[in-house]
Amino acid sequence: MVGELIEVILYVDDMAAGVTFYRDRLGLRIAYPQREDYAAELWVQFDTGACRLCLHGGGSRKQGADAAKIVFRVADIHLTQAELRERGVELGEVRSPSPGVLVCDGVDPAGNRFSIEQS
């Protein structure tokens, strides 16, 4: 039903510092976007194999609100959403944060956020 883990999203309040750390200090390669200056970016993906590390701008360092989020790929988001809801999983509505991408958010029993994504 739920496929492979495709993303881990970290919320950051300083994108330039986040990119500098993961790219320059840890040596990760940026997959998207290719820029000179990342200060104004809201989304940066690092190529880390089958599962990408993503930095999401606009974080506010609020405990729980800006916690890491894991994202699972699904083939049919509406079918998966319905099946998971039948199993007692609380999920939000399907939304489209960018063209060609459908996302549905949920929370596990410990309060950890996750999403299912069809793209």
Give a structural overview.
The chain has helices spanning 15-25, 77-86, and strands at 5-12, 29-32, 43-47, 52-57, 69-73, 95-98, 101-107, 113-118. It is of the alpha+beta class and 119 residues long. It has one domain: 2,3-Dihydroxybiphenyl 1,2-Dioxygenase, domain 1 (Roll). The chain has an eight-stranded mixed beta sheet with strand order 2-3-4-1-5-8-7-6, covered by helices on one side.
Structural class: alpha+beta
**Rounded mean pLDDT score:** 89
Query: Beta-strand level of the residues, as a percent range?
Result: 35-45%
CATH level-four homologous superfamily name? 2,3-Dihydroxybiphenyl 1,2-Dioxygenase, domain 1
Specify Rg, calculated over alpha carbons. Answer: 15 Å
**Number of DSSP helices?**
2
Q: Spans with pLDDT under 50 lasting ≥5 residues?
A: none
Spatial shape: globular
Q: How far is it from the N-terminal to the C-terminal residue, by CA?
A: 15 Å
Please give the oligomerization state of what you see. Answer: single chain
Helix content: 10-25%
What is the top-level CATH class? Alpha Beta
Please count the beta strands (DSSP E, at least 2 residues each).
8
Q: What strand line-up does the widest sheet have?
A: 2-3-4-1-5-8-7-6
Here the CATH topology equals: 2,3-Dihydroxybiphenyl 1,2-Dioxygenase, domain 1
Concise account of the structure shown:
With 119 residues, this protein is α+β, with helices and mostly antiparallel strands. 18% of the residues lie in helices and 38% in strands.
